[in-house]
Prior knowledge:
This protein is of the alpha+beta class. The protein contains 4 helices and 7 strands. The protein has 2 domains: 48 residues, no CATH class; 104 residues, 2-Layer Sandwich (Beta-Lactamase), CATH 3.30.450. The strands form 2 sheets. A 5-stranded antiparallel beta sheet has the order 4-3-7-6-5. It has a two-stranded antiparallel sheet with strand order 1-2. Strand 3 and strand 4 form a beta hairpin.
Amino acid sequence: MRAALVADGLCWGYLTIFRQDGQPFFSEEERQLLSFLAPFMAAMLRDRSLPRSPVDGMDHMPEPGLLVLSETLDILSYNASARQWMSWLQDAEGMDAASLPRPLRAVCFRALSESSRGTAYSTGAHTRVRLSDSSFASIRACLLHGPDSLAKLAVTLEPQRICCRLSRMRWD
């Protein structure tokens, strides 16, 4: 027996129940019970998937963070929001304040690798990561060019918008 777990017009998952060989098919009463319970399961999945508040109990979304890193991933400069985002990412990974979180390193290495392959424009240096409070962060990196020959990376950290997450979940 299979049920689509739908809440608010969006499918949040599927439930498939099997019986062992030789057991009888599901009864009408069992099908009705699953039909009754499916919307509650969907609502629970929805509620556990979406953050209850924007970030860490705050009533507003945090400002986007901006980091500038060297090509060896040393932090050259950052804004106050980036420091807060770094703290949330480090908490989510159980890291100390001196460590660069893995998702940040990953997008930076991707941006550097695209540059070394001669890719002129790409949006591939991007990831989304779940924070400890169940909210999501979006992280992007790109290579900066300037008058000096040293490569620098710009990294943005911002809240992943719920509408963006939902649009990726639809299978139209």
